[in-house]
Each structure stands twice: as C-alpha cells, then as structure tokens.
Amino acid sequence: MPSRNPASIGLHLAATAATALGWAGIPCAAGVEGTVRNATTGGPAAGVTLTLSSFEDGMTLLEETVSGTDGAFSFEKELPAIAEGQQLAGSVRAEHDGVNYTEILPVGAATRDVLVTVYSASADAVPPPDSRAVILEPGEAEMIVREFYPFFNNSSPPVTYSSEAGTLRFFLPEAAQGLVRVSGTGPAGMSLPSTALPSETADVYKVDFPLKPGENRIELTYVLPHENGAKFTVRSMYPTLGTRVAVPEGFSIEGSGISPAGRIPDTNWALYDVPDAEPVAIAVTRSPSSSSQISIEPAPIANELGWIAGLAVLILGLGFAHLLASATPRGREARSGPEG
Questions:
Q1: Rounded mean pLDDT of 278-295?
Q2: What is the number of alpha carbons within 13 Å of residue 240 lying toward its C-beta?
Q3: For every residue of the chain, which 3-state class applies, written as one string?
Q4: What is the mean pLDDT of residues 71-87?
Q5: Averaged pLDDT of the chain
Q6: Which residues, 6 or more positions from 31, have their beta carbon under 8 angstroms from its beta carbon?
Q7: Is the model's pLDDT at 266 over the cut of 80?
C-alpha cells in the first residue's frame, strides 16, 4: 500500500469533517438572509430596501440590500459577537411605502430564514384616536403638559395608516410658542421621536406618525407659563373623543363643564372629565391647605422623570380600560371591530 504524506492526510480528514458537519445540518458562518412579506396582500414584497445593523457597542450599520422579486434578501456580512449577557444581536430594518419596519434579532436566533413583515400604506379613512389623557404638572412659574393619544388600528386587510394631513391633529396653546416634543409608540412597544408641523389652521399642528396594525400611541409634551389660578385653554380636534385630565395631590382644576372623575388607583392624583365639543378655559389651582407642603419644580422637556412615565402607564394601562373608555362612547366603538 503506498504511503501518504501526513499533511495530505490532515487535509483529507479536515475536508471529510467539514462534509460531515454539513450533512449533519450544523450551519457554517453566513450572513443574515430571509424574506420580506407584505401582510396586506399576503404575498412577497419586492424592491424593499433593507438595512442590517449590529447592537455591538450601540447600533452599528453593517450593510444594505434590496429584496428580490420573490421577496428574498441576503446580507453578506455576519453579525459580530455580542458581549456576554447581552440578549439582542442586531436588527433588520425594512422601508416600504415610506414606513420603516424592524425585525429584532436575538442572540442565538436563526439568521438564515428571517421573516420581515411589512404592510401597504393607506392615507384613506385614518382612524381617530381612541381616547385622550392629559397630565398636568404645575410648578411655581411653569406647567408641563403631557398629552397621550392611543390608537387601535383594526384594519382588515391590515394596512399602515400614514397621511400628510396627519394621523394626529392637535391644538397647541399659543403660549407654548410652537415648541412641542412628539414621540410615537407602535405595536412593538418601541418609542420613537416624531415631528409636529403647523397645519393650515392657526395653533393646530399635525403629526404623521405611522399607525401600524395593532395598538399605537402618540405622546406630546410642552410647557406653558403658569400662575396659581391662571387659565389656559384646552381644545380637542376630535369633538366626541372624551378627554380625561390628571393633576397631582394638592391641586384641582375648574372650568365650564368639567366634572371630577375620582383618582388614579394607588396614587393621589385626581382625575377630571373635560368636554371636547368646545374649547374649555381651565384654571389650575393649588389647595390653600396644602400649599406649604407641596413643592413641584418644573422639569425641562428633555428630562424624562420616572414617576411621570409610571403615571402615564397607570393612565394608559389601568386608566384606558376603566377610567377613560368608560367616559368615551366612541372609544368603545373603535375597539369593537375592524376599522378602515
């Protein structure tokens, strides 16, 4: 039997092992690949621009590509190793009809058959908000106002609503001087900054945050000058919506048609129902008996406070199901079946 070179034997064994691994179904290193599906049409989505990003050391753009006629896509680059204990490796973002959709890639998840779901965009019959909650945070000279608008997109077939006329239109008091911070949260629960633009009506602004199928929320934050007992105008662009206002302990509000609505569970914040049919002048008043015990300092708009976020969760979670929806006939209808 002829002798074989040891190096040749080593190469032969390595090739055999690689082949065996392939037969055993153990994946070799490869980039991310998958398919883009349009859930509105039920078919593949061609010509969609996709971006692969890594969550290593923040978010790093790795590569861009475009889906083929069958919706298939493939990235050549691999996701780099992530620090121990980190749960998310990266993401694939798809842009379709001017709207971004993101598929998060957890550490250890398969990267060879990624499904990215998109929807056709529609500007027709955009659903109004389901309800409106307003949190007032009075200070000595300023008052922070936070407005929360939930939307329920029950469209069938499912579409994403997006319109240059705005998926939300809102009144911004002149005293805010046009300064308002806007953020939107889609069904995936990720909060993203958005932009408010002036409309054709004075002091009315519009936000074109895409409303994807499922539950969405748009939040507004602005600051008004405030003196104890001074009035400011609350106005709704949706006359049958139903607005509920929350103020901290030691404060109360007064105005035409305003009625007490109890308190937020597990807090001392008072709730009031405010009519939406006409603009209402509201006076926020500090209780004389508690003025020496209350000190609420105004916070910059850019400074998010945990207790405010927690309060919003209470209002939007506990509140919308029981506190807001009960006062909003239109809101109950919006959740009862498909719309759009």
A1: 72
A2: 7
A3: CCCCCHHHHHHHHHHHHHHHHHHCCCCCCCCCEEEEEECCCCEECCCCEEEEEECCCCCEEEEEEECCCCCEEECCCCCCCCCCCCCEEEEEEEEECCEEEEEEEECCCCCCCEEEEECCEECCCCCCCCCEEEEEEECCCEEEEEEEEEEEECCCCCCEECCCCCCEEEECCHHHCCCCEEEEECCCCCEEEECEEECCCCCEEEECCCECCEEEEEEEEEEEECCCCCEEEECCCCCCCCEEEEECCCEEEECCCCEEEEECCCCCCEEEEECCCCCEEEEEEECHHHCCCCCCCCCCCCCCCHHHHHHHHHHHHHHHHHHHHHHCHHHHHHHCCCCC
A4: 89
A5: 81
A6: 52, 63, 74, 75, 76, 77, 78, 111
A7: no
How far does the chain reach from its first CA to its final CA, in angstroms? 80
Distance of CA 180 to the CA centre of its chain: 17
Residue 292 or 228, more confident:
228
Cis check: omega of the bond before 157, within 30 degrees of 0: yes
Residues 6+ apart with CB under 8 A from 270: 246, 247, 249, 251, 252, 260, 262, 263
Structural domains in the chain, CATH included, are 28-118 (2.60.40.1120), 132-335 (2.60.40)
Pairing of strands 196-198, 280-286: unpaired
Whole-angstrom distance, CA of residue 297 vs CA of residue 62: 44
How confident is the model at residue 312, as a pLDDT? 58
Of the candidates 267, 122, 274, 147, the one whose C-alpha atom is nearest the C-alpha of residue 205 is 147
Question: Residue 159 to residues 95, 103, 151, 209, 210: CA-CA distances in angstroms?
Answer: 14, 18, 14, 14, 10
* Pairwise CA distance, residues 35 & 113, whole Å: 7
Question: Tokens 């329920």 — which residue?
Answer: 152
Tokens 């690689």 belong to residue: 18
In the sheet that 168-171 helps form, which strands lie side by side, from edge to edge? 168-171, 204-207, 196-198
Q: Is the pTM of this model over 0.70?
A: yes
Sign of the dihedral through C-alpha 151, 155, 160, 162: negative
